[in-house]
Each structure stands twice: as C-alpha cells, then as structure tokens.
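Box 3.1 A note on notation
Throughout this textbook, protein chains are presented in two layers. The first layer is the amino acid sequence; the second is a token string describing backbone geometry. Keep the layers aligned when reading.
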Amino acid sequence: MLNISSMPGSTEASPKKEDKMAPKEEEKTPAAPEGTATLATPESDDATKVEIKLPAEDSQVKSKEVEAKDEFRALSKAELMKYATDPFWVTLRWVLFILFWLAWVAMLVAAIVIIVLAPKCPTPAPKAWWQKGPVYEVYVKSFKDSNGDGLGDLNGIREKLDYFESLGVSALWLTPINPSPMKDNGYDVKDYINVDPMFGTLDDFKNLLAGMKDRGLKLILDFVPNHSSDQHEWFTRSVEREDPYTDFYVWKKGKDGGPPNNWRSVFGGSAWTYNEKRGEYYLHQFYPEQPDLNLNNPKVVAELKEAMAFWLDLGVDGFRIDAVAHFFESDSMEDEPFKAGQSGDAYDDLDHVHTFNSPKNIDLLREFREVLDNKTEEDIYNPRIMMSEAYLDIPDLIKYYGEPRHVEPEEDDLSDRSTVSQMPLNFGLISEFKNKEDLTSDKLRSYLKSYIDGVPSWAWPNFQLGNHDNGRVASRFGPELVDAMNMVYMLLPGTPITYYGEELGMVDGVLESPNDKRDPERTPMQWSEEAHAGFTPSASSPWLPVNADHTSLNANAQLKKDVGLNSHAAIYSFLANLRQNEAILFGYTEFVNGTTNGHELFGYTRVKKGNPGTLVLVNFSEEEVVADLSGLKYLPERGTVQVRSVHDPEIEEPKSISFKELKVKAKEGLVVAFVPQF
C-alpha cells in the first residue's frame, strides 16, 4: 500500500537557513517502521516522502535468505586446506574409508554363505537317451530286404537309417538276429554270439552299428536266456550227458509212464518232451524245439553273461530280455492247480504258481544288470540299459525295477535309480485294450493313472501300443484313431516304444493260411507304392504278402515335403520332437476327469514351471464334443493348436482356441500349447 503525503515547510525561508536546518530535519525524521520504505521526490524543494509498506512476512523471508547466504558461504581455499591437513580430519577420513570396505567385504561373504548354505530346490537329473525319444522295434525279417531273397536283413536296416532320423526316434530294438532254425522266428537261438546268414554277417552288423553311431542312434538287441534251440550245441551235448553240459537244461524222469507233472506249454500241449536218447523228459515252456535252460546252473549263467559282454564290447547299448517271468520253476515239481471253474488242458486253465514269476527271476536279472553296469562305468554318459519282457499286473511288474540305488548328492545321475530293469515293459495298453469296445475314456484314464502312480518316483515308466505278438493299432481301434493314440502315448511321462509301421498306420495283413497266428501283424514294411511296397526287389517274393493298401499308405507318400502335418508319419515325427520339451520330460501330469456331456473325452496336461504347457485331448465318441476345460488346473483362457489328427487340409482350422468352449470332432485328437497359470 502506498501512502503519499506533503511535509509542512516555508517556501520563503532563506537558502542559508534552509541549508542549516536540513540536516536537523533529517535527523528528526523518525525511523520507518519495520516493513516500510521512505522515498524523496525531486519535484520540489520540499521533501516528499513515499512510504512503501511491505508485508511483514516478506520482509522476514528476505531477511532469512540473507542470513542463510551468510551462514552457508563457500569456504575459501585457505580454509579448506586447514581441514585437509588437520590430523583429526585425516584420521576420520581413513577410519570411514576402512569401515566402508570392511562392510562391503562382510556383505559379500554373507551373500556367498547364504547361497552355499541355504536350502535349494532340487534340480531334476538330466534324462538319459533311453528316456528322451521313442524306442523303435524293428522286426528284422519284415523291415527291408537288401539282397532280393524276400527276407529283411541288416543291410536293409542300414539303408533306412535316414528314415529313423526323420522320425525322431532315439534307439532301435532289433528282434533276434542270432543263428536260428526259425521255428519261432529267431527266438530259438542256436548260437548266442553270431549273426544268422539270412540277416547278414558279423561285419554287416558292425557296419550297421557304425552308421547308427554316426547318427546318434542307439541299438538294443533281443536276448533270449530262458531257452535255446534244440539245435544248439549245448543241447545236443546235454543229450549225450557230456560235461559240463549234462545239466545245462531241465531234465526229469517221467511219472507213471508219462511226463513228470501237468505243466503246460504257452503254445499248447505238455511242457515236457521225452528224449529217447537220454531217456528223460526235458522242460520247454514254449515250443518243444525251445528247451528251457537250467538257470540254476552257474555255468549256464556264466555263458549267458559272456554272450552279453560280447555284444556290449561291439558297441551295443542294451538288451530287451525275453520271457523273464519264465526263468525259474519250482523245485518241488508239483502239479499246478486249476483256476476256478477250469478243468481243461489249455495253458490259461492252470494257475501257474510253480512256473511263472518266481522271485528268483529278479535275482538273475540283477546279475545281468551288473554286466550292463560294468560296461556303463566305462562311459557313464552312455548308460547300457535293460528292457525286460513279462506280461504282469502292475504291482508285480513294478518289482522288476528292483530296489532304488543310492545316489550321492554330487553324482550326475543320467539314468534312473533302478537296480534291476530300467524298463520292465508295460503291456497294459495292449492287453487291456484289445478292440474299440475296450477303448473308453474312463478305462484309459483309470489304467494310465494307476500305472503312472504305481511306478516309484525314482524309476521311469514306459508305454507300448503294439508289438510283434499282438494286433496293430489301426486294426484294433480303427485307422481314424491312429494319430490320436500316438498323441496319447507319445507325450506321457515315460518312454514310448513303437512297433515298426505303427507310425504309418499299417493294418494287420490278410493271410489265407499263416504259419503263425501272429503273422498278420508281421507283414513287410510299406516303403512305397511300388511292387511289394518297396520292401524287396520286384522280381523277388517277400516271405509274407504285403498289404494291398501299400499303394496309398506308405512311408514315401507320408513324408513328402509338401505333406505338412497331414500324414500319420509326419504327426508321429512332430510328436517325437515335441518330447524334447522340458514339460514333457520333467513335467507334472494332470488328467481331464470324467466325460463331457456324456461323451467320451479323454485328455491330460503336461506342465512344468517356466515352460510352455501341453494339452492332449481325444474325442472317442461318434460325434463332435464342445468341451469346457476352464476349470482344469493351470489352464489359461486360451491355447494354440499345434497338431490335429482329423482335418481336411483344404479347410483352415483355427489355431487359437478357447478352453471355455473347445470343439473336438468325432475321433479327433488335439495337441494344444498354452502358457500355464500358476
């Protein structure tokens, strides 16, 4: 606020008087109150005072600012040097410097101690070669003929090694290649350390093995220790009672003019055959041409171990050991009782308490495992494995894993912890599901869950849909379910074992008079639309007729580059490669429970934190199902279809799907990727 006023004074006063009086007037001027300023104007000789009254607060602020500037005035160089050289401040700076670095080192040490001593989440042991990819069964006689004699051979397999690479399999399991009279297609061995001329030579075998090693493929051989051929040198010398072979087989005197007891052969008839030259009966749980070895004789076991070592030294990666449940018989030689309600002569009429699944079987397999483990010790990153064949219920089958092997925490365990068989073969998907009527979602879910839950956490499951003794998938369930069933068993937590031709959807052959009732599932591999399906040169005749559908259903047609994921083989290859995902090898498995709107919908998810999840879904019903899976554990709202089993390549199916309203066509299988919600 500005107040302007005139001060009283005479205009007529003399200059001298005025000069003399001015200082006095100035001295008499009262001091301006706090917050005011007085100004003189030059408009007249009279002093004109202008008072500017400032608010008291502004005045105080400005006063404080001045004081602050005075208080925090910068030190001069001379003043700074006083502190720089003063002993007190020099000492203080060094003390603080040392304390800083001591604290830093202490924190570093504490961090290291925490990292080392703090509890850690267990890291899963890396999977071995036999756990990662499928094992592919090659029925050698039917796979590929290289020399035109109508029989598959080792060189024929070698010609097709690129095919196995394209499929994505990890290992080949070869049916017996040993010299044999072929009464049981090689399962009647007459020489354990050689190759039958119909399949090639030992050099051919070595060349095959070298080609496989070049491609990173492993080789598993069939090994038959329960029995040999009656043409084996051991048997002929045992008939002659020539030591040490006298007791290499199970010989017994007859009873009441007949066999020692009522034991039956798996293939029908008595399990005993009389040998006139020796004057005794010998035991054979299969054909009479397959006498049972006396596995209670340490010399027999030693010979078998030497045979295993022979093949391992050549570079074999493991054995599928045949008929392990038949190894030992009861010493009492008592008759076996009939099953309830049975009284006939068939093998299945008896309860095989004296000839099947003896506890001693596992003890012998443990000895065989030692032979494999001794070879593994030479190269721990290439474990040699055992697959054991026995058609058993789940609780009995699990016993063939043995007891868990102790593993030190620092060990790099590339295998599992079994001490007997790494893979007691699981035939449940064959024996429990023989036709379409058996294949329901509830039964499939129940069986898989009971088996997976039954396998110990330290062991590894396995799954088979078919083999050389049972009908093919396409014939049992229908061609439309081939892809869907491959999806089901290829992505489960365990090793899938594939019978040759199942990746193509081959069906059982139609044979007028087969020599063996199992021949329909052993017809030649269908390589092309050419004569004899490319199995053998056109001028030759294959040992079994090829299927008539080979002109449209063959490997060449299904693996063409322009086929995409529109063939059985292409889908199989996709699934084999998908197995390398962390969620498939290590992940948690959650089954889709129950039916959807009364329809047969089967499914499961594979999930591992930090990795994409996978959903497998199959509609077994005859009509489309709209499923709501939104309540399934870990599922988000949407997923991406990776592969479909049933679709028209001309119609572009949606890739992104909603789990709230998921459409699945009749007999369709889906593999869907998703981001798990934890």
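Residues 2-71 form one domain. The longest strand covers residues 601-607.
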